[in-house]
Amino acid sequence: MKNTNSMNRRNFLKNSAMGVVGAGVLGQAPLLNAEDKTVKTPATAVAPEKIKAYRTLGRTDFKVSDIATGGNPNPAVLKAVLEAGVNYIDTAESYGNGESEKTTGSVIKDFNRKSLFITSKLNLQKGSSKENILERTHKCLERLQTDYIDCMMIHGPQTSEEVKTEGFHEAMKQLKSEGKIRWVGISNHGATYGPVAEPMEKVLLAAAADGRFDVMLLVYNFIQQESGERVLNACADKNIGCTLMKTKPVEKYLIMKEMVEERAKKEGKEIAEETKKLLDGFKERADMAAEFMKKNNITDPREIRDAAIRFVLKNPKVHTVCINFRNFDDIDPFIKLSGSPMTAGDEKKLTLYREGCGSFYCRHACGVCESRCPHGVPVNTVMRYNHYFEFQGREKEAMGKYAALPTPKAGLCETCAGFCQAACPYNVQIHGLLSHAHRNLTLA
Ligand code: SF4
Ligand code: SF4
Asked: What's the CA-to-centroid distance between 383 and ligand 1, angstroms?
């Protein structure tokens, strides 16, 4: 929800003499007067929000901010986020083809390196011999312009066997002894593509049992609680640090109907009968969502989003929550959630939302329905790419990933009877969502 008490950072920049200098100065209260070079505090500027809580990241003993940053596409935004007190940075070799690491490197050199906890990730499907992992880690270090990475993770392993990849573990052992890697981790959000992968829970429980992993990045949110809770419990038993992603399954699903109708208008086409059926299904759900919002006096979906983050932070087994800060407007609203307790009002809103609108959310790391698709469309992966496209501002990357999928795509869904939807235990309106995702990801 927008912070109505303070000027947001973009306006702050626009309206302050320092705007032309850049966002790096945000968080430092005094401003330099361009005329007389004296330092003054502007009467109109309200101090930006700051991180209020730090938690011990399991056995690493590192005190990390409860709000972390992930993705990191914009250096000025990342700098402002770190100045707000965020000290956990999540990146990966594959994010923007190394660009995310480069951005991170360009920003962290102006900060006390020891105050930051930086994680990167390597996808073992791109190579898993010890030599390959050593070489790629050195490239990560170069892009990050740092002597060490706090935690190197296996990026989304597809099976519990992959967790044990010896080349990775041997390389980590050597890099740890050289001081280039401090801790070893693993991330998982279910299938990368195709219906063959094991679910997140199975892979991460295998990693916890393996004993060589110090940190995990997993999916856990108020709609999709059970599997995440089982992983969090296993991690707590072994004192493994836990970072979350996909914590707020809300946002634009509430306005899906408008988006689809707007698109149809822009295309200026007659809507095909099959598509019309899908849109009708959407409309029904979207009307339910609108009714829900009205009935519960929720004027802004971001109220649910904020409650969703407070919900996961209520769990002491969670150490930090990754947020993709897309722009300056994202900073204060998310930072202010640091250290803020969940309220009875939050609890009520989330319960109502789960009951009323839970069927809008294709659960991350699920894939239960995929075996029912006669064409082998990777339902969960398509929806995850659409999540990157619609909610994380990663349109180009999401489209590239979708184009590179080696499986049949969701263009097939428009003329299908929707077998996957019938198989979804959560009653997700997935048939229509898949067609919508395909259009986004191909700009059809
Ligand atoms: S549509 Fe339902 S069963 Fe299929 S992946 Fe999404 S949540 Fe799981
Ligand atoms: S709508 Fe049909 S083609 Fe599309 S994923 Fe579902 S079953 Fe497969």
From this structure: 9
